[in-house]
Specification:
Layout lengths: L17 E3 L7 H4 L2 H12 L2 E3 L2 H5 L5 E3 L7 H10 L4 E3 L7 H14 L3 E2 L8 H5 L7 E7 L15 H11 L3 E8 L3 E8 L4 E7 L6 E6 L2 E5 L3 H4 L2 H14 L6 H19 L5 E2 L2
Parallel strand pairs: 1-2, 3-4, 4-5, 6-9
Antiparallel strand pairs: 6-10, 7-8, 7-12, 8-9, 10-11
Helix pairs in contact: 4-5, 5-10, 7-10
């Protein structure tokens, strides 16, 4: 990506040439930083700042939707998909299951490749804890809420949920959720009988995972810098834009959102089990 090829962390194969200032006006962590980031990438990396997505699409081969607000991703993805540009959508893919499914539907109809992922999938936990004989998984990470997102787990707890799916794979059939002041515990039951548990800690915590392999229990608690390996995610983005093959199956991302939707409904129903089907 951008930067001198001799610089530490430089990733060859793609270059950011233009950007649009998206973001969200009612989420401070977005609204308060957009102008600063835009000025920095323009001055430091020579990225052209354009007025809208339509202009952006005339200048690029592929698109990264980096707005932190999942509510805007469907409206931003529509013109990108219509222009047949492959796209990466940063977490959260959407703020509702319905929006996530609509993005997938539009992309499938237009034959446009896309993927969305947490950087933790390619960090130390996701890479080191994938085993062929996993019988159960417990993950944890920060779970603060953002009031504008209906799926409250999608805002930040999507990270430990993504780690859970990295290790367990698809196949969850039902979810229960116990909500507490300092965190929520979400338990998914897989079709083959395995259980996957996520502890969404409030306000914040580190990340980690415990994997059960028959009689063996393996724990991973890397330092935050190793767990959140954004460079590794960018490497996967570049491969994806070159090949059109998403490193995370779209079906898995959509099941993750069905998992969070079921967890939301379980919370609303006092902790009852809710089916993903």
């Amino acid at each position: 990506m951008n930067g001198d090829p001799g610089e530490s962390g430089h990733i060859p194969g793609a270059r950011v040439v233009a950007a649009y200032k998206g973001g969200s006006q009612d989420i401070p962590s977005s609204a308060d930083r957009v102008e600063q980031y835009a000025a920095e990438i323009r001055a430091k990396y020579g990225v052209e700042i354009v007025p809208d997505i339509a202009t952006l699409l005339t200048k690029v081969d592929a698109v990264l939707l980096e707005s932190g607000d999942g509510r805007v991703h469907l409206s931003q993805a529509r013109p990108v998909i219509a222009a047949h540009k492959p796209l990466f959508i940063d977490k959260p893919l959407a703020s509702t299951l319905e929006d996530a499914r609509e993005i997938a539907r539009l992309a499938a109809e237009a034959h446009v490749p896309w993927f969305s992922s947490s950087s933790l999938r390619f960090g130390a936990i996701g890479v080191s804890m994938k085993f062929p004989d996993v019988t159960g998984v417990f993950t944890w990470g920060p779970g603060p809420f953002e009031p504008h997102h209906y799926l409250d787990l999608s805002w930040y707890a999507v990270h430990p949920i993504e780690v859970l799916y990295t290790i367990m794979g698809r196949g969850c059939v039902s979810v229960t959720r116990t909500a507490g002041e300092f965190g929520d515990v979400i338990v998914g039951r897989w079709a083959d009988g395995r259980l996957g548990t996520v502890n969404a800690v409030r306000p914040y915590s580190d990340y980690g995972a415990v994997v059960i392999r028959g009689r063996e229990v393996v724990e991973s608690r890397p330092k935050a810098s190793a767990a959140v390996d954004y460079r590794a995610l960018v490497v996967e983005m570049v491969k994806f834009f070159q090949t059109g093959a998403p490193p995370v199956p779209n079906e898995e991302t959509l099941e993750m959102f069905a998992f969070m939707d079921a967890a939301q409904k379980s919370k609303e129903q006092g902790g009852k089990a809710v089916s993903l089907r």
